[in-house]
Design brief:
- The protein has 3 domains: 152 residues, no CATH class; 181 residues, P-loop containing nucleotide triphosphate hydrolases (Rossmann fold, 3-Layer(aba) Sandwich), CATH 3.40.50.300; 89 residues, no CATH class.
- The relative contact order is 0.07.
- Helix 3 packs across helix 5, helix 15 packs parallel to helix 17 and helix 16 runs parallel beside helix 18.
- The strands form 4 sheets. The chain has a 7-stranded mixed β-sheet, sandwiched between helices. Strands 1-8-7-6 form a 4-stranded antiparallel β-sheet.
- By secondary structure, it is α/β, with parallel strands linked by helices.
- It is elongated, with a radius of gyration of 35 Å.
- It is built from 18 helices and 15 strands.
- The termini are far apart.
- The longest helix is centred in the C-terminal third of the chain and has 46 residues.
- Bound molecules: adenosine-5'-triphosphate.
- Adenosine-5'-triphosphate (ATP) binds next to helix 8 and helix 17.
- One of its GO terms (molecular function) is ATP binding.
- It comes from Hevea brasiliensis.
- It catalyses: ATP + H2O = ADP + phosphate + H(+).
- Keywords: ATP-binding, Hydrolase, Magnesium, Nucleotide-binding.
- Pfam families: AAA, AAA_assoc, AAA_lid_At3g28540.
Length: 485
């Protein structure tokens, strides 16, 4: 009996559906287009009135030139973790030099998310259009999108805070997964290679407190978007790294990039023709970047207009006798990039570009730089990288020889207090050698080098003292002669 009743019901439902389809087909076939359109409009209005959910679509490509939407890509990355947990069909992409896998949900999958106790759903979809071009093969254009669905009573929470949260998290995850690049400029064009420098703050030889202070400063900067926005200043920070060659200036820049996940732009100022080219280069830097100008004292006449004018006058006088300069020097003289141009761009341009940027100047001769260039606000932090201290040596010994302590450390500590040796030179002695008793041999070689350096420094100081005394004696003699009646 029951079986019969169910069968009857199914037959009835089937005939009702068939009837409705027939009516709909007739309606589409014979009703005038305008009337049909109007009816569909009212139909949708009734539907949205009864349906309590709001839907927002984010298309993959937007704009007239169909650029890939940044929001779509941020959403895709944001949803990757919930997709890998919830979706049954996934898409995989390999990033970071084939080392990391990013999963996203395949078309027509749905995942749920929760924000401040409110549940919402993301659906991935695509529209397929037949291409208008004539082709033997059927060509279809596919336009993908994400659709966000939530109850209308949460409209304010979702449209404001939730979507901001999704975009921010998505961008941050994307930045973490992306491969960083090292850019160098050839004139006004950047070319890049993948940045894979292994230096980190852990391997940087430096006193621990100083290292911590720099790391804290960098991390605070990278988390201060709202602060910079509130005070109305560009989100940028300037670092001046100074010290003798081989003390780790370039190594520190690599460690900064690895800590913050930034790209590096190594700006060769002598190759930039004028301020227009400089502006173009600076505008093209990515949102998370370190712009480096190495050996700023040699790059250009960055000491500004005052000295430039004097030099021009002098040049006029000497023009006839001057021998031809080597090419690099000529380039730097031909470049019309000025100190004021550079400073104006750094100060002004990035205020409108958005993004977080560090600008790092390095020099071996800090005293040569114009105070205007390095004043606080332009170069916010001045960091001296100096000769190797015992604390710095311990980092190198751990890096190179995996040694925490050794009986020779005490002697090395004393010698480092008396002899000046750069971390680069110390590191050279700690390079592994193919002999038995490796660590001992390395440390003894370092001790030998430190003793030689100490002796040389002592001899040099004595020689200097002697020369000074010699220089003073004739003066005194002269004085005695002039004062004698
Ligand atoms: N503080 C340091 N910590 C770890 N390694 C260092 C340090 N200083 C120098 N080195 C080692 O010495 C090499 C040269 O250092 P680096 O190029 O960073 O010096 P620099 O100060 O930038 O020199 P320059 O002024 O000549 O450019 C590096 O490859 C690195 O291995």
């Amino acid at each position: 009996m029951i079986h019969l009743k169910q069968g009857d019901m199914l037959a009835q439902v089937g005939s009702v559906v068939a009837c409705l389809m027939f009516v709909w087909a007739m309606f589409k076939q014979y009703f005038p287009y305008e009337l049909r359109d109007r009816l569909e409009k009212y139909n949708k209005r009734v539907f949205t009135f009864v349906y309590p959910y709001i839907q927002i679509k984010f298309h993959e490509f937007t704009g007239e030139r169909l650029m890939r939407s940044e929001a779509y890509s941020a959403i895709e990355t944001y949803l990757s973790s919930s997709s890998s947990m919830q979706a049954k069909r996934l898409k995989a992409e390999v990033v970071k030099n084939n080392q990391a896998l990013v999963l996203s949900m395949d078309d027509h999958e749905e995942v749920a998310d929760e924000f401040k106790g409110v549940k919402l759903w993301w659906v991935s979809g695509k529209n397929a259009f037949k291409s208008q071009t004539l082709s033997f093969y059927q060509v279809t254009d596919e336009k993908r999108y994400y659709k966000l669905k939530f109850h209308k009573r949460h409209r304010d929470l979702i449209i404001g805070p939730y979507l901001n949260h999704v975009l921010k998290e998505g961008r941050a995850l994307k930045a973490k997964n992306r491969q960083r690049k090292l850019y160098t400029n050839n004139g006004s064009y950047w070319s890049h290679v993948v940045f894979e420098h292994p230096a980190t703050f852990k391997t940087l030889a430096m006193e621990p407190e100083k290292k911590k202070e720099i790391m804290d400063d960098l991390i605070t900067f990278s988390q201060s978007e709202e602060f910079y926005q509130r005070i109305g200043r560009a989100w940028k920070r300037g670092y001046l790294l100074y010290g003798p060659p081989g003390t780790g200036k370039s190594t520190m820049i690599a460690a900064m990039a690895n800590l913050l996940n930034y790209d590096i732009y190594d700006l060769e100022l002598t190759a930039v023709k004028d301020n227009t080219e400089l502006r173009k280069l600076l505008i093209e830097t990515s949102r998370k970047s370190i712009v480096v100008i190495e050996d700023i004292d040699c790059s250009l006449d960055l000491t500004g207009q005052r000295r430039k004018k004097k030099e021009e006058e002098k040049e006029g006088d000497e023009k006839e006798q001057k021998p031809k300069l080597p090419k690099e020097e000529r380039d730097s003289k031909n470049s019309q990039v000025t100190l004021s141009g550079l400073l104006n761009f750094i100060d002004g341009l990035w205020s409108v570009c958005g993004g977080e940027r560090l600008i790092v100047f390095t020099t071996n001769f800090v005293e040569k730089l114009d105070p205007a260039l390095i004043r606080k606000g332009r170069m916010d932090k001045h960091i001296e990288l100096s000769y190797c201290s015992f604390e710095a040596f311990k980092v190198l010994a751990n890096n190179y020889l995996q040694l925490e302590s050794h009986q020779l450390f005490a002697k090395i500590s004393d010698l480092l207090g008396e002899a000046k040796m750069t971390p680069a030179d110390v590191a050279e002695h700690l390079m592994p050698k193919i002999v038995p008793g490796n660590a001992q041999v390395c440390l003894e070689s370092l001790i030998g080098a430190l003793e030689t350096t100490k002796e040389k420094a002592k001899l040099k100081a004595e020689k200097k003292k002697h020369e000074r005394r010699k220089h003073r004696q004739p003066k005194r003699k002269q004085k005695r002669q002039t004062t004698r009646p």
